[in-house]
Amino acid sequence: MGEALEKFVAEAQGLYANFESTTLFSIGGWNISQYTLYMFIALALVLLAVLIGARKLEFIPHKKFTAILEYGYDFISNSVGADVIGEGYKKHIPFLATLFFFILFANVIGLIPGAKAATGTISITWALALVSFIYFNFYGFKQLGFFRYMKSFAPHGVPGPMIPVIWFLEFVSMVIRVLTLAVRLYGNMLAGHMILAVFSLATTIFLQTAIFSMDLVVGIPAIAWFFLLFFMYALETLVAFLQAYVFTILSSSYIGMAIHPHSAARQPRFGGHAILAR
């Protein structure tokens, strides 16, 4: 028991090094890390899913894979698009659906033992957040024009002397969305996968020790670690979906606020409680 515990503590101290970005190979001077590789794998899976799903469109899909894709697309269209953006939401659904499925596939790939979640590095989540940031600001400028969009940061009804202060605070709030989107996704995915790594390491060490030593005292904790690992995998599978959903619905909310700045607040909701999109 003590030997297994000492080995676990010793190996756990260097666990974070497994999550650091390392160069696998270079192409034309461009270094490809393990996270970049899994990003391209996730992108390829999204493209493959679209090609397979759109290869034979049917009014009533009979193939399970096509039905699942259609259900996912309808989910994004209704729950993330229509309910959050409102009028004019349909043009944004392809972008939001692509965002959702890419993040979901990237998160799920990270659950495979030995693989890495592309969303587990800040550079990729930063790029995703920047794409979302540019997208909703572009449509804000396109819908309202430059001056009306900039003016929209000061809500109607604000007393005259407070307008510059409120405008500045709202503008800063809009700018830091790119940071909050990136850090929220990165932090949740990295923390979750590090916890999985800890549980996997503990399960492996205690099981190996129990098998080789045939010690019941070590075997009981090993079984406990195994069931905890199973529970954590189930939980992280749920988190993989939720983080893709949260990132997408916040992006949808930002689009809605950009093109309908003074309409009724369109905040994404879970169970009736609004998420603070800013």
Could you walk me through the main structural features you see in this protein, from its secondary elements to its overall organization?
The protein is mainly alpha-helical. The protein has one domain. The protein is built from 9 helices and 4 strands, in the order αββααααααααββ. The strands form 2 sheets. Strands 1-2 form a two-stranded antiparallel ribbon. Strands 3-4 form a two-stranded antiparallel sheet. It is elongated, with a radius of gyration of 23 Å. The termini are far apart. Residues 264-278 have low confidence and may be disordered.
Largest sheet properties: 2 strands, antiparallel
Number of helices: 9
Q: What is the radius of gyration computed over CA atoms, rounded to a whole number of angstroms?
A: 23 Å
Shape, per Cα inertia axes: elongated
Class computed from helices, strands and strand pairing: mainly alpha
Quickly count the domains.
Answer: 1
Order of helices and strands, N to C? Answer: HEEHHHHHHHHEE
Low-confidence stretches: 264-278
Number of strands: 4
Amount of helix: 55-70%
Mean pLDDT: 82
The neighbouring-strand order within the major sheet is 1-2
N- to C-terminal distance: 49 Å
β-sheet strand percentage: under 5%
